[in-house]
Specification:
494 residues; alpha+beta; six-stranded mixed β-sheet; globular; binds manganese (II) ion
Length: 494
């Protein structure tokens, strides 16, 4: 049983982290807290802690995103239908339909738990996404729940630790990434990495700590230099260190087949300023003060990633030949990069689609765009019965590496890395995809399986009598193209 002290400090903590809520909205949280505290009162977790600690921790994770009060209340109540005698009707009476539909959604997700068999696992995930597509908050609550479970994973049996970690790294981390909640993605990955590859994890961690000491000094030196250069201007800025997560380093070592000592960009410089104009102003000062690495500049402000990430990226060579990956962004872009879809939380049910307010602004359309992706992705998957197919699509679609390709009219089409001219055709219009005969890339005729690069201008050539064929599935990689091709083949009995 919990001591009164612990309860009091938990309650205080939660209240503090929810300071952004109005008093009226906060009263719902108090009520949910009391209710959860009572309903779970005799339960403990595997760690031996009172169960309430878990509920409050999940609620606190969500508070970090400044999410709406219904979601926080649902987080406090998220295990109540599954683990206590409280019934749905009782809960509706106390908290209303909205909160209860969130709790029910999270409870439903728990039914699709991990499977050793990867095909069954993929099928579970597919069902799970279909089950919650109406309300993206359910996935976000589930992510917050998983984050706390990963933080306390050492109390589980070794087998369950592996299962949960595998699932976190294959499903939840990519999802957090796709929703732009970078902080959670990194943390989920690192906890799972420690469980799944303990020796690699420890080796990288030790070397990373050694390098951190010398790097901190180097970054300070660069910061001083920058301050001097910017002193004459009225540009405001602050610098925040940007350590790569350990799993990210591990993946880079694997991908580039390099030892730790050869990975240079472990620490980055992040410069945060107030306006877009100042981002470019600071960029030009950096350009004239340090030596930029050729070809390292990427403008994600003009061309945001599909998870709406925006920043200027470049790698510079500072004194002593130190290589520093540098990012420049506004405060708003920074919030979005860390907390993604929830940074400017204006919740809208995906299923409702159209119901936009007239106060549409830039932030809203950015959020919409992300929700839109999820909605589309799940629509594409509706006709899929093949779980392996689902898993491959999820991987491709969640991969943040992208290429930007232009139509002849200079419209930008964003595609996952490795996409072909055929994927491009389907991204432009499904009718164009279905009758795609060939393509002109940068004015040269190419076959439709040609992979596209950022900056390519692609024109699709169509012919009326062309029809999708089975072999197209060998080089179409986007979920959209593949689902359209499969649909055609199915309808025509092929
Ligand atoms: Mn839970």
């Amino acid at each position: 049983m919990e001591t009164p002290d612990l309860i009091e400090s938990l309650r205080k903590d939660l209240k503090q982290s929810l300071a952004y809520l109005s008093r009226e909205d906060y009263s719902l949280i108090e009520k949910a807290y009391e209710y959860a505290s009572y309903a779970h009162s005799y339960q403990t977790r595997d760690s031996g802690e009172p169960y309430l600690v878990h509920c409050v921790s999940v609620a606190k994770n969500l508070a970090e995103l400044k999410i709406d009060h219904a979601s926080v209340a649902a987080a406090l109540l998220h295990d109540i239908l599954e683990d206590t005698l409280v019934t749905e009707q009782e809960l509706v009476k106390e908290f209303g339909e909205e909160v209860v539909s969130l709790v029910k959604g999270v409870t439903k997700l728990n039914k699709y738990q991990f499977h050793d068999n990867i095909t069954e696992q993929a099928e579970n995930w597919r069902k799970m996404l279909l089950a919650v597509v109406k309300d993206i908050r359910i996935i976000i609550i589930k992510l917050a729940d998983r984050l706390h479970n990963m933080r306390t994973i050492k109390f589980l049996t070794p087998d369950r630790q592996k299962n949960v970690s595998q699932e976190s790294i294959t499903l939840y981390a990519p999802f957090a990434h796709r929703l732009g909640i970078y902080k959670w993605k990194s943390e989920l990955e690192d906890w799972a990495f420690e469980v799944l590859h303990p020796s690699q994890y420890n080796a990288i961690k030790t070397q990373w700590q050694k390098r951190a000491e010398s790097n901190t000094q180097n970054l300070k030196d660069i910061e001083e230099q920058l301050k001097e250069k910017l002193a004459g201007t009225d540009m405001q800025f602050r610098i925040s260190a940007r350590p790569k997560n350990l799993y990210g380093i591990y993946k880079k070592m694997e991908r580039q087949n390099k030892p730790f000592s050869a990975i240079e960009d472990l620490f980055g410089l992040r410069i945060i300023t107030d306006t877009v104009e100042n981002c470019y102003g600071i960029l030009s000062i950096i350009n004239s003060s340090f030596k930029p690495v050729e070809g390292s500049f990427t403008d994600y402000i003009n061309m945001p990633k599909s998870n709406m990430y925006q920043s200027l990226h470049m790698t510079i060579i500072a004194d002593k030949g130190i290589v520093v990956e540098t990012q420049i962004r506004t405060e708003e872009m920074h919030q979005r990069a860390e907390y993604g879809v929830a940074a400017h939380w204006r919740y809208k049910k995906i299923a409702e689609g159209g119901g936009k307010t007239d106060k549409e602004d830039n932030k809203d359309s950015l959020t919409e765009d992300r929700l839109d992706w999820l909605k589309k992705f799940i629509e594409w998957q509706r006709d899929t019965t093949d779980s392996g197919e689902f898993l491959t699509s999820l991987k491709t679609e969640c991969d943040f590496e992208q290429v930007f390709v232009f139509t002849p009219k200079k419209k930008v089409i964003k595609l996952p890395y490795g996409a072909t001219a055929l994927d491009f055709a389907y991204a432009v219009h499904s009718g164009i995809g279905d009758t795609c005969m060939g393509a002109k890339v940068n004015n040269k005729m190419v076959p439709i399986d040609t992979k596209l690069k950022t900056g390519d201008v692609c024109e699709i050539l169509v012919r009326k009598n062309i029809r999708p064929s089975k072999n197209w599935l060998e080089f179409a990689i986007t979920a959209q193209a593949r689902s359209k091709i499969r649909k055609y083949l199915k309808e025509h009995g092929k």
